[in-house]
Amino acid sequence: MKDQILLNLDNPGQLERLYRADKPTFKRAFKTLYPELQENALAGFWHERLSFANDEISWGSRNDLVFIVIASLVAGLIAKIPAIFGVNEEFFYSRNIGFVVFPALMVFFARKNKMQAGNIAVLAGSMAAGLVYINLLPDVKTSDTLILSCIHLVLFQWSVLGFAFVGDRSDVSEKRLGFLKYNGDLVVMTALILISGGILTAITINLFALIGFRIEEFYFQNIGVFGLAAAPIVGTYLTQTNPQLVGKVSPVIAKIFSPLVLVMLIVYLIAMVYSGKDPYNDREFLLIFNALLIGVMAIIFFSVAETTRISRSKAEVWVLFALSVVTIMVNGIALSAILFRISEWGITPNRAAVLGSNALILINLLLVTAQIYKVVIGKTDIKEVGKTIGYFLPIYFIWTIIVTFVFPLVFGFK
Could you list the residue ranges that cross the membrane (predicted)? Predict the structure, then answer.
């Protein structure tokens, strides 16, 4: 986007088209470039225009609202399939929970980005392949590969959504980082929607109880299901049409939690030494340890995504660097524990999946940490860290394909 702005700086019409095509990305790119363009009169005009604070909430066009309503209703109906058609709930939700929301979000971004028909067909085909495959897998309750496929199918769908978010863009790395930021904003917005919905639910149920009507079962089985399905769809719409709603909240969260997580992680590692617990002989502890690792890595990536949008102090970059180094240590412990368990008790689908995931995370963290170190010593810009993260995301996508579609075949559905 920055290159396009520079190329069309003397072309007001083209700048306007770029702005209308992707307002949030245009604003971020322009604000980054503006210190170099202050002498340009047109750049000054755009700076004033983009800096104007608009407190009004935009609800988008009528067509957009109709689309969101229809998408939310369809998502709710998909969630109600077990009740409507008598399908076993455990079977349906364990395999198809991602299909409740992800297709609607994919269509939203494909529509927003005006993707080419060929690319839309590829994305739709990927989702259809996942739908057919996961529901054809043998229903073996003790199958580790089935559980792994169900979990990684959600990550596969999330990756497909990322391709829809990026669209037919040339600035792919920037858009991939924008996808991570979107996920952070969506978590904040969806949490607010669910909290508000929870309050409304409590008030409604208790008001009806006061006049003698017990509506809990009806409410949760109908209105509650539709509300849960609609929350991320409505949250996505609000974050995309009104980026200012959480635009100031997300950076604050990243700024506060990065140092807190760093302190927690250091204290936890010290406490682990004194507790006598270790991931080498305790399987449950290893699982929790890996969950901790993934959560911390997500915070690092989210913090980097926010850091690239606004200027950061040296201290904040140092915190990110320290957090990355400590996370690499945690990853090293987890990886060594997995290798130890494989050497002692052999390879299993679970161990193979965790080994591959941890190896990819370690490589990604090493690359990110190396880039952050270059930022610390002044050899590069923080945006290079974001590019490193963006370039690595497709590798995770490939891994989700392997675990979801290949593992059940390789391990004989065990």
Answer: 65-85, 91-110, 117-134, 146-166, 186-213, 219-240, 252-274, 286-305, 317-340, 352-377, 389-411
